[in-house]
Amino acid sequence: VPVSRIRNFCIIAHIDHGKSTLADRLLQTTGTVQAREMKEQFLDNMDLERERGITIKLQAARMNYTAADGEQYVLNLIDTPGHVDFSYEVSRSLAACEGALLVVDASQGVEAQTLANVYLALNHNLEIIPVLNKIDLPGAEPERVKSEIEEIIGLDCSGAILASAKEGVGINEILESIVHLVPPPSDTVAQPLRALIFDSYYDSYRGVVVYFRVMDGTVKKGDRIRLMATGKECQIDELGVLSPTQVQLEELHAGEVGYLAAAIKAVGDARVGDTFTLVNAPATEALPGYTEAKPMVFCGLFPTDADQYPDLREALEKLRLNDAALNYEPETSSAMGFGFRCGFLGLLHMEIVQERLEREYNLDLITTAPSVVYRVTTIKGEVLYIDNPSHLPDPQYRDKIEEPYVKVEMITPEEYVGTLMELCQNRRGIFTDIKYLTQGRTTLTYELPLAEVVTDFFDQMKSRTRGYASMEYQVIGYRENTLVKLDIMINGDPVDALAMIVHRDKAYNVGRAMAEKLKELIPRHQFKVPIQAAIGSKVIASEQIPALRKDVLAKCYGGDISRKKKLLQKQAKGKKRMKSVGTVDVPQEAFMAVLRLD
Ligand code: GDP
Ligand code: MG
């Protein structure tokens, strides 16, 4: 195909506004996927994604389309993940496109992710085509939402397409707009090869399969290529396009989107955002914008059963082949035994990894509460990055502690502004801006410590606004604060996995609430179990779990056999998620107690 008849585009939307449904519809209408092979939401092919209705990983699809002008076009759809945790991946997939469909639910309007993604798209100079989806809904207000898009984003909506992805309305109009409005790639076939990696995954037979867009030059099967950020070299065994299943080809040219396999061992060797070029005729400069995805949130992962430690290590190794952003190191905890300290892009990333470990690898894990990375300067002037609260140097060795801050942007109906401001104040937020957008819709901007956002901020925001508010955040740097380490002692022993770093002004309240919560969560034992919270050697809160009354057990020994069996079964089930800390059995929920204090 000549470059003039290629169109590369993506779909940007807030979660649930209909991106996957529209993508499916485009594949179907262009005959790329026949109706009978159509599973709902073809592009979201991880189970987890389908269950949660989110798009985690980007994928691509090539469609052949005969336009109204009678010409054959190749339309490459590059799917983008919708969540903040993956905004770097969004940015890389946008860099591979010339245009974007901006899908907004006509019954909802602009949301935080619409906004964040649209700004990214504008930064990449993409042609943006507004699409108002779900016009079949009785509550759809396309005119109101159009003016919202115009006012908030400053995008002309006079040509906005009214669509229903569900009912197939407006699909041809969308395809024609892509052909006419999205510019073709520039013709740089004569230049040295440069291709942008926007996704990759691990395949146990072929090694890493890389998805890329050829920006300049030509790439052929058999070529030796060099990955410019990692310096790795390899030979292309297989090359092709995604239509949407992999179809092999001999070569791809500037402007085209495809996949390759080259016996690359781990996704870390061919990272998203990296550029590859030819070993023989290399480009001098990589494509701009490459950064390594940095983990922002850390937690400890421990097998409930110590025998599962080797299995956990093997599972993490495997996941890591497929997820360059996943970070882990062995960790030994005096309370928990052997496990791993893992780093994630954000909370959703953390949940996804935990869930995959348990589901796909059959592991029973205890996870500790998420922590951010603190920057500590010692009195000797050394700078340490602390991702595990129990490793915080004692106060006499510290000069200062800094913590990461984020700028949080929330979009909410006006009536919830008060409750959201209260939430942000409780979380040590600094108010920066409020804007009344259109009738009844407001953006609220705060700067907050990331540590306060990773602990259930999102859930709180949703429940306080009955699900109507949406949010995005962006890291803005480190700030110094008076932070202290809060230790939790169970039965007299400090439990390192429960240690946390909190602001001094909040330490007493958090300590007290933690002790109370743990008392609630830890089951009774044959003996009394004292629980204490302490800063240094100073105990600031204490509670006691009373001993189990003997007659509870006595009754069941004397009672009928089936009831006894039931009780034992129940205990066994409960035990699955228990970790013995010294002589005390502590359930999984206790390690997450800090997330449920308010
Ligand atoms: P995504 O999160 O943006 O990928 O959204 P999905 O495509 O998964 O759609 C979210 C929900 O909206 C699903 O239940 C869809 O069936 C529904 N949906 C998508 N498009 C339409 C539409 O045009 N009309 C209606 N009524 N529902 C739609
Ligand atoms: Mg989706």
Key features of this structure:
6-stranded mixed beta sheet; 34% strand; 33 strands; 8-stranded antiparallel beta sheet; globular; binds magnesium ion
Low-confidence stretches: 50-58
Q: Percent helix among the residues?
A: 25-40%
Output mean pLDDT: 88
Number of helices: 15
Span of the ends, CA to CA:
60 Å
DSSP strand content:
25-35%
Radius of gyration: 27 Å
Shape: globular
Strand numbers in spatial order across the main sheet: 11-10-16-7-8-15-12-13
Strand elements, count = 33
Bound small-molecule species: guanosine-5'-diphosphate, magnesium ion
Q: What composes the largest sheet? A: 8 strands, antiparallel
Structure classification: alpha+beta
Description:
Belongs to the GTP-binding elongation factor family. LepA subfamily. It comes from Crinalium epipsammum PCC 9333. Pfam families: EFG_C, GTP_EFTU, GTP_EFTU_D2, LepA_C. The protein is built from 15 helices and 33 strands. The chain has about 600 residues and is an alpha+beta fold. Mean pLDDT is about 90; it is low at about 50-60. It binds guanosine-5'-diphosphate and magnesium ion.
